[in-house]
Amino acid sequence: MKPRTLKALIIVVNILFVFVTVIGIFIALTAGMLFDAPGSTQHTALWVAFWCALAFPVLCLLAIILSCYFCFHSHAYKKSLWIFLLPIADLVVMLLSFL
Q1: pTM for the predicted model, two decimal places
Q2: Which pLDDT tens digit goes with each residue over 47-59?
Q3: I need a surface site. Which of 6, 63, 87, 96 has the fewest CB within 10 A?
Q4: What is the C-alpha to C-alpha distance for residues 23 and 35, in angstroms, rounded to an integer?
Q5: Can you list the alpha helix ranges (DSSP code H) found in the chain?
Q6: 3-state SS record for 84-98
Q7: CA distances (Å), 17 to each of 24, 36, 38, 71, in order?
Q8: In whole angstroms, what is the distance from residue 99 CA to residue 91 CA?
């Protein structure tokens, strides 16, 4: 792809991730409710989901910052697109913990 197209794609994904980060903050705030039921602190899957929910907004912000750095300062466009997989991998781990 052309660098101009990649820059536009990175900007669009960054804007999308800003909105996803806001949603992720609300999810992280309610993550403690996973342990409301008696004995739920003994389930490993709930702990994995809890830490993934807490890490998600942080990973989104990290992905936004690092992708902007690699795109606009280092001109490593493909690397900045690969960085967006960090929060997506976190979501995959969170969803797999519920299976």
Answers
A1: 0.88
A2: 999 999 999 999 9
A3: 96
A4: 21
A5: 3-29, 44-72, 77-82, 85-97
A6: CHHHHHHHHHHHHHC
A7: 10, 30, 35, 16
A8: 13
